[in-house]
Amino acid sequence: MKVAEVGNIIEFRDGLQGIVEKVNENSVIVDLTFMENFDELEMEEKTVVNHKRYKILYGND
């Protein structure tokens, strides 16, 4: 399993996307304001996602 790095864009939970802001041992903190429809979703700006629950879309490869 490849772990995301700060600045990566990840996808999780049925198509939600965000930018990784911090990498923890078992999870990442993600900024969701990256999504164009963020205001419509009525969600918090940041969320925590377990490493097993996301896919890296764009990385620092």
Structure, briefly:
This protein has 61 residues and is mainly beta. It has one helix and five strands; from the N terminus they run E-E-E-H-E-E.
Report on the structure:
With 61 residues, this protein is mainly β. The chain is built from 1 helix and 5 strands, in the order βββαββ. A 5-stranded antiparallel sheet has the order 4-3-2-1-5, with no helix packed on it. A hairpin with a 3-residue loop joins strand 1 (9-12) and strand 2. The protein is globular. 15% of the residues are buried. The mean pLDDT is 95.
**SSE string, helices as H and strands as E:** EEEHEE
Q: Which class best fits the helix and strand makeup?
A: mainly beta
How much is the average pLDDT? Answer: 95
What can be said about the biggest beta sheet? 5 strands, antiparallel
Q: What distance lies between the first and last C-alpha atoms, to the nearest angstrom?
A: 15 Å
What integer value in Å does the Rg equal? 11 Å
Strand order of the largest sheet: 4-3-2-1-5
Shape verdict: globular
Summarize the SSE layout with pairings.
Layout: E1 9-12, E2 16-23, E3 27-31, H1 38-41, E4 46-50, E5 54-58
Antiparallel strand pairs: 1-2, 1-5, 2-3, 3-4
For the structure shown, list the relevant keywords:
61 residues; mainly beta; five-stranded antiparallel β-sheet
